[in-house]
Design a protein that fits this description.
Elements (H helix, E strand, L loop, with lengths): L4 E4 L8 H18 L6 H15 L6 H10 L12 H16 L9 H10 L3 E6 L3 H11 L7 E4 H4 L7 H10 L6 E5 L2 H10 L3 E5 L20 E3 L5 H9 L1
Parallel strand pairs: 1-2, 1-4, 2-3, 4-5, 5-6
Length: 242
């Protein structure tokens, strides 16, 4: 059966989102300290990491919550004399200044997308998240013209790991599951839902946050293929089409 489409997750599949967020959060803390926040950098980063875990990575009030927590902190309590709005503004400035440095596709991305286009295999980004945030990443990565479609979960009101996101894609292009390959970095959100509807799944190992090689717990979800580079997709295509 010929492969008609290859879909890709975005964060930690196309670019190193783990590194970007880590460096940007550290930069936000350093900028807040530069503008007067009287808290050691290491301690503030530790608190911010805790807040991200508790409230989720997509929450928009991490820095506000950090300062609220510091108002009641037993070690480094900040008082009324401190301008928390200034600190938040400084943190946002530091975050955005740093993050733009890390919007770079992994080295195998551009050539892989170009070669797939030359083979007349269509490509799509299928990703979770806020459309504005995800489109910003895609535009900064300069890959919009290299893919044939972009599907962002919040535009269709279905988020991974709900397999309906992939069903939506198949119906949109009238494809059979075995005509589509999906590449992602997460077993739970990328591989499992695509497996459920029969799409050919490829887990790419990037050494990032959710790479099973880095996770301590074992997850009993198996992709059809494991790869360390997107260049390995061309062998998979030959195997599936033979």
């Amino acid at each position: 059966m010929p492969i008609k489409w290859i879909g890709f997750d975005l964060d930690d599949t196309i670019f190193n989102g783990t590194l970007l967020v880590e460096k940007a959060r550290q930069a936000s803390i350093r900028m807040m300290i530069e503008y007067g926040l009287p808290v050691p950098e290491e301690y503030a980063i530790q608190l911010l990491d805790e807040i991200v875990i508790e409230f989720g990575s997509n929450d928009e009030h991490h820095l506000d919550n950090l300062l609220l927590r510091l108002k009641n902190d037993s070690k480094f309590r900040i008082g009324q004399e401190h301008n928390v709005n200034k600190y938040v503004a400084a943190g946002v400035m530091g975050y955005h200044r740093e993050k733009v440095k890390h919007f770079k596709p992994f080295k195998d991305v551009i050539k892989t997308l170009e070669k797939l286009k030359s083979l007349n295999i269509k490509t799509a980004i299928i990703t979770d998240g806020s459309p504005k945030k995800q489109y910003e990443k895609i535009l900064r990565l300069k890959i919009e013209d290299l893919v044939d479609d972009i599907i962002i979960s919040d535009e269709v009101a279905v988020r991974k790991p709900n397999p309906e996101l992939f069903t939506y894609f198949l119906e949109r292009y009238n494809c059979k599951p075995n005509e589509v390959i999906y590449v992602g970095d997460r077993l739970d959100k990328d591989i499992e839902p695509a497996n459920k509807i029969g799409i050919i799944t490829v887990l790419v190992h990037r050494g990032t946050k959710y790479d099973p090689k880095k996770l301590k717990q074992r997850i009993n979800i198996k992709p059809n293929y494991h790869v360390n580079s997107l260049y390995e997709l061309f062998k998979i295509i030959k195997l599936e089409e033979s």
